[in-house]
């Protein structure tokens, strides 16, 4: 296998700011940060790296939740990290990413937010009041590294600073 990336944690300051913005009732953000697990593959044949919930996260029917993972990815040029929901959450609870597939470009790593990977998911279950809680440390999304190419006449020279549409601002 070709080694093309490395997962790291963002700084505590970056994580704390984003975590409290999305989970303001958290009593001990440092404990949440300290428990963050770097993404891992479950088996030697797995393509996906499991992203683990930093704390218990509940997905309720008809609502979105933005989960700051505390993770960043240093990715080699010519590769992209694609984020998908874990299959079981999709099949059993109709939980999916709000943008269908998350795209983490190699240059996102150097953004002012430290390339903090944040995953926004919604529960689209049909039964009223449906919810599911992903327990701290359990996988809720997966990332797959894919190679990509550019056109012969490509002339992109922009510089990224941020995510969620930052390249078109």
SSE diagram, text form:
Layout: E1 5-9, H1 12-22, H2 29-34, E2 49-52, E3 57-60, E4 64-75, E5 79-85, H3 87-93, E6 95-97, E7 102-105, E8 117-123, E9 131-134, E10 139-147
Antiparallel strand pairs: 1-4, 2-10, 3-9, 4-8, 5-7, 5-10, 6-8
List keywords for this structure.
169 residues; alpha+beta; four-stranded antiparallel β-sheet; 3 helices; globular
Description:
With 169 residues, the protein is α+β, with helices and mostly antiparallel strands. It has three helices and ten strands, in the order βααββββαβββββ. The strands form three sheets. Strands 1-4-8-6 form a four-stranded antiparallel beta sheet. The chain starts with a strand and ends in a 22-residue tail after the last strand. The mean pLDDT is 92.
Oligomer state equals single chain
**What is the overall pLDDT average?**
92
The largest sheet is:
4 strands, antiparallel
Please count the beta strands (DSSP E, at least 2 residues each). Answer: 10
Count of alpha and pi helical runs: 3
In terms of per-residue confidence, which ranges show pLDDT below 50 for 5 or more consecutive residues? Answer: none
How much beta, percentage-wise? 25-35%
Order of helices and strands: EHHEEEEHEEEEE
Summarize the structure.
The protein is of the alpha+beta class and 169 residues long. The chain has 3 helices and 10 strands.
């Amino acid at each position: 296998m070709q080694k093309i990336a490395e997962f790291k944690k963002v700084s505590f300051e970056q994580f704390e700011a984003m975590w409290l913005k999305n989970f303001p009732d958290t009593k001990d953000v440092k404990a949440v940060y300290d428990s963050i697990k770097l993404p891992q593959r479950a088996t030697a044949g797995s393509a996906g790296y499991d992203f683990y919930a930093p704390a218990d996260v509940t997905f309720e029917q008809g609502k979105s939740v933005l989960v700051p993972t505390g993770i960043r990815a240093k990715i080699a040029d010519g590769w992209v990290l694609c984020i998908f929901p874990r299959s079981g959450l999709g099949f059993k609870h109709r939980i999916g990413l709000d943008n269908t597939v998350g795209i983490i470009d190699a240059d996102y790593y150097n953004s002012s937010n430290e390339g903090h990977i944040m995953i926004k998911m919604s529960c689209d279950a049909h039964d009223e009041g449906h919810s599911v809680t992903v327990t701290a440390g359990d996988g809720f999304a997966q990332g797959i590294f894919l190679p990509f190419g550019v056109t012969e006449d490509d002339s992109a020279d922009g510089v990224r600073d941020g995510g969620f549409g930052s390249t078109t601002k």
